[in-house]
Structure formats: C-alpha cells, structure tokens
Amino acid sequence: MRCRSLRGSVGAMLLGLLALPGCGSSQADSGPQQLTGRVTYNGRALTNQSIVFAPREDLDTNWGFAVTDDGGNFSVSPVARLNKLTAGIYNIYFDRPASTPRFDDGQRRKQQPAAPAVELPDRFYHANQSGLWARVERGSRWIQIDLRDGPKA
C-alpha cells in the first residue's frame, strides 16, 4: 500500500514539473516559433516552389526551407535543433526541384518531383543574386514575397 502511494506521489511530481513554464531567456527565445508567408510571381500565387532561408551571417548555422502550396503559402521548417529561426537577416532564394530515388518492390527508380507551375528567372535560384531577404525578429510571423519580371524587380 505504501509503495503505491509513493509511486503516485512521484508520478504527480513529475507531471507537475512537466507543466511548469520555463524561466529566464535563452538564444532559443530570440526568434519566432514559426515563420509563414505567401509568394506571388507577377501577382499570381507561386505554387510548388522550394524556398531557402539562408542566414547572412556565415557563423549562423540555423537556416530554413519551405515549399509553397497551391495558394503560394508556405511555412518555414528550420533545420537547426532550435525548432525556430533565430533573429537576424536571411537571404531568400528558390531551389530547383531534384529527382529523388524511390523504391518499389525492391527496385530503385528515379522519381521526378512535381514540376513547379512557373519557371522563375535564373537570378531567383541564387542566394547572392535573388535580391530577396527578410529580417526575422522576435514576434515575426508572416511575410509576403512578391516576385516580378525584370532585372532586380
């Protein structure tokens, strides 16, 4: 009987500890929980495009990526262990889809990804040429990216 009540007390304490909010601040608090937005090209939703968010600071290893949906909407998935982008300036560029291996019945086959509905001007596929960037600050949540034809438009 005593063993059961001790186990129940320990279980209640562990549950209580899990429910406690964190105290203080850390580097992980310096960015938004999630960065979302929408991409248009010449005023129309840009669909099925891979977007890369690369930090301008070479020392920062926290970068993110996203894929636009049918409405041009995206949600950035950070690749670092923080589960969020840290505050700072990010260069934005698009990544051309690559084929990925697929296994069916033990056979390795190349699977072509869904092609983007629109092929962008070449400059948008290069981090240093796209001219796109975003400042991510604490509380940043949503951004609009409006791409246009023409040089540096």
Fold and architecture overview:
With 153 residues, the chain is mostly beta strands. It has a single domain (30-147), classed as Immunoglobulin-like (Sandwich). The protein is built from 1 helix and 11 strands. It has one helix at residues 2-19, and strands at residues 36-41, 44-45, 50-55, 64-67, 73-75, 77-78, 88-95, 100-104, 107-111, 132-136, 142-147. The chain starts with a helix and ends in a 6-residue tail after the last strand.
Task: Give a quick rundown of the structure.
By secondary structure, the protein is mainly β. It has one helix at 2-19; strands at residues 36-41, 44-45, 50-55, 64-67, 73-75, 77-78, 88-95, 100-104, 107-111, 132-136, 142-147. Helix content is 12%, strand content 34%.
Radius of gyration: 22 Å
Q: Could you give the count of β-strands?
A: 11
- Under the CATH scheme, the architecture is Sandwich
Average predicted confidence as pLDDT: 73
Q: Characterize the biggest β-sheet.
A: 5 strands, antiparallel
Q: Number of helical runs? A: 1
CATH class: Mainly Beta
Structural class label: mainly beta
List keywords for this structure.
Immunoglobulin-like, single chain, globular, 1 helix, 5-stranded antiparallel sheet, mainly beta, 153 residues, signal
SSE blueprint:
Blueprint: H1 2-19, E1 36-41, E2 44-45, E3 50-55, E4 64-67, E5 73-75, E6 77-78, E7 88-95, E8 100-104, E9 107-111, E10 132-136, E11 142-147
Parallel strand pairs: 1-11
Antiparallel strand pairs: 1-2, 1-5, 3-4, 3-7, 4-6, 7-10, 8-9
Keywords: Signal
Signal peptide: 1-28
